[in-house]
Amino acid sequence: MKKALLWCTLLLSAQVCLATSPYLLASKLPAADLATQLAQVEKKLLAEGFTVIGRHTPKGLPAHASLVVTDPSMLEAIQTIAGSGIIAAGIRVGVQTNGTVSYMNPDYWFRAYLRGQFKTAQAPAKAVQARLAKALGEGAAFGGDVAEADLTNYRYMFGMERFDSPNSELSTHTSFEDALKTVQDNLAKGVGNTSRSYDLVMADRKLAVFGVAMNDPGDGEGSWVNKIGADHIAGMPYEIFIVGNKVFALYARYRIALAWPALGMGQFMGIINTPEAIRNTLARVAGGTSAGN
Fold first, then answer.
1. What DSSP assignment string belongs to the chain?
2. Which residues are bridge partners to 24 per DSSP?
3. What percent of the chain has pLDDT over 70?
């Protein structure tokens, strides 16, 4: 009996300690300009059945970009999950002029974004990872290690935000249609020096997600991504999403930490003003209020 209990304890400990990383390296390409690299990677993804829905090329990061694609099986799972699961719709692939290609690790990001509903999408998530590896190659994982069990309710450290933090809510509108039009119009106008990188709308479910490039030279992406590691470009773009009549963007002390989990506290303190700057920018896009209004 004691041996059985000991075995169970060791087995549970091993499961709890299973860790995963946010990114996987792909096969490297020869150095070339960014447009050429994006075209090559896009061709490989299309050949493997992915649908390209956007390119993310923010100012201040001239040697880095990302492609965003979708997968039919994952979209079907997300429709079933509904709610905030819409944020998981975009599958991101990072591209650099030096030929480095990387992509988000579906196992990591879907565990974090789908949380308690991850099991619903676990099979398509594995299939997405296999197809990304087939299209682009699969190399070393990088970006830090987080225990799989911790991703469901992840936070960087005690006292910081989680996925469902109240300050991730940006605005409330009279209807889904009004919320959608507000975000679409504000991105089209470049409110807050932003632009649309991608969008996906599930109107019948009253859900939508947008990738947002934040291009302000003072507090846009170029001002902080370069400080903490542009090699994590497959963690971008930042998402703004709509559920019903409400608009959300994950608060940056969660969202940045999720994309850079190995970030040292000194580095985090170096971008201490970034979370509120991002929230203020995206609140304007959402039609809410911000410190800058």
1. -HHHHHHHHHHHHHHHH-EE-SEEE-PPPPP--HHHHHHHHHHHHHHTT-EEEEEE--TT-TTEEEEEEE-HHHHHHHHHH-GGGGGGG-EEEEEETTS-EEEE-HHHHHHHHHGGGHHHHHHHHHHHHHHHHHHH----EES--EEHHHHTT--SSTTS--TT-GGGEEEE-SSHHHHHHHHHHHHHHTGGGEEEEEEEEEGGGTEEEEEEEE--TTTSHHHHHHHH-GGGGGG-SEEEEEETTEEE---HHHHHHHHSTT--HHHHHHTTTHHHHHHHHHHHHHT---TT-
2. 103, 141
3. 92
Q: Is residue 5 in some structural domain?
A: no
What's the CATH number where 146 sits?
3.30.310.70
Q: Is residue 3 part of a domain?
A: no
Confidence at residue 20, expressed as pLDDT on a 0 to 100 scale: 96
The count of structural domains within the chain is: 1
Residue 226 within a domain = yes
Asked if residue 174 lies in contact with residue 261, where contact means CB atoms within 8 angstroms, the answer is: no
213 is in which domain, residue-wise?
20-286
Q: What is the pLDDT of residue 3?
A: 38
Q: Which tens digits make up the pLDDT trace of 58-107?
A: 999 999 999 999 999 999 999 999 899 999 999 999 999 999 999 999 99
198 inside domain = yes
pTM: 0.92
